Amino acid sequence: MSTSEETKPKLLPTKIWKCRNAECKAWVREEFAVESQVCPLCKGPMLRSMRHLPAVQNKAKSQPRKKKDEF
Fold first, then answer.
1. What is the pLDDT of residues 2-15, one digit of tens each?
2. pLDDT of 57 over the 90 cut
3. Residue 20: what are its φ and ψ, rounded to 5°?
4. How confident is the model at residue 69 (pLDDT cuts 50, 70, 90)?
5. Closest listed residue to residue 38, CA positions, set 29, 47, 50
6. Nearest C-alpha neighbor of 32 from the set 63, 62, 8, 57
7. Beta-carbon neighbour count of residue 39 at 10 Å?
8. More confidently predicted of 37 and 16
9. CA dihedral (25, 31, 32, 35) positive or negative
10. How far, in Å, CA of 67 to CA of 71, rounded?
11. HEC profile for 3-55?
12. Are 36 and 12 in contact (CB under 8 A)?
């Protein structure tokens, strides 16, 4: 294998919302979309679709909470 093949992330079919306006290139992963499906750029309607994208870890790692007297 060449080094470029080794560094390519594995692509997975991912549900997305994309803008219906052909001139607008906006899209967002379904898990990051807001409830109102309005394009954040042109304010047009969004359409459900699929795209092959690298996997993302969307869970924030929780920081241990400090006690009140440790500020």
1. 555 567 789 999 99
2. no
3. -75, -25
4. low
5. 47
6. 57
7. 19
8. 16
9. positive
10. 8
11. HHHHHCCCEEEEEEEEECCCCCCCEEEHHHCCCCCECCCCCCEEEEEEEEEEC
12. no
Q: How many residues does the chain have?
A: 71
Least Cα distance to 52 among 19, 23, 9, 5 occurs for 9
**Does 68 score more than 80 pLDDT?**
no
Q: Which of 13, 17, 63 is nearest to 40 (CA)?
A: 17
Mean pLDDT value across the chain: 82
With a threshold of 0.90, does the pTM exceed it? no
Residue 55's beta-bridge partner residues?
none
